[in-house]
Design the sequence.
């Protein structure tokens, strides 16, 4: 890779790091080409961008980013073989890695940067996989908001039947 290609790669990585709030750094070394291709296919299906990166280029790209809080810690993670996973859904790479771990020992989570928070180490994988996505949180909030409204509507509906019954009983009483 010549200098111009390296500059292009640094610029591309900088742009990618700036555009996403969810960055996973994993070690996927020692996996066969077939397994890596399978991982890439699953990443594509789950809207995850996967890139094997040179550590020095990733560090240079991170050094050029000024307006994102917490990315400085990520520079220390780029040691040894590194693959970057970029996604809009924070928990999706962790879920995918857990699924892959049923068959293989790797990929190993080095770190995850999610909405300016750092999660370092493979032991954070279970916690990251259990995080709720933005869509899941919105669904939970809607469900919570609907519950009291449904209770009020149900009470009003049953109340109208009660009132109608009372009016009918009073009418029958006055007739007799």
Sequence:
């Amino acid at each position: 890779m010549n200098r111009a290609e390296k500059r292009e790669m640094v610029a591309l990585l900088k742009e990618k790091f700036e555009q996403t709030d969810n960055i996973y750094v994993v070690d996927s070394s020692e996996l066969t080409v077939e397994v890596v291709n399978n991982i890439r296919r699953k990443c594509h299906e789950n809207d995850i961008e996967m890139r094997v990166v040179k550590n020095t280029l990733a560090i240079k790209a991170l050094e050029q980013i000024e307006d994102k809080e917490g990315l400085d810690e990520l520079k220390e993670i780029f040691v040894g073989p590194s693959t970057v996973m970029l996604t809009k859904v924070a928990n999706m790479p962790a879920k995918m890695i857990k699924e892959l771990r049923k068959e293989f020992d790797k990929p190993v989570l080095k770190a995850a940067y999610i909405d300016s928070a750092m999660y370092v180490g493979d032991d954070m994988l279970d916690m990251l996989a259990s995080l709720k996505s933005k869509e899941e949180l919105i669904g939970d909030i809607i469900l919570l908001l609907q519950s009291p409204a449904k209770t009020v509507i149900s009470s009003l509906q049953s109340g109208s039947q009660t009132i109608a019954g009372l009016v009918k009983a009073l009418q029958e009483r006055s007739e007799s």
Observations:
- The chain has a mean pLDDT of 85.
- Residues 134-175 form the longest helix (42 residues).
- The radius of gyration is 27 Å.
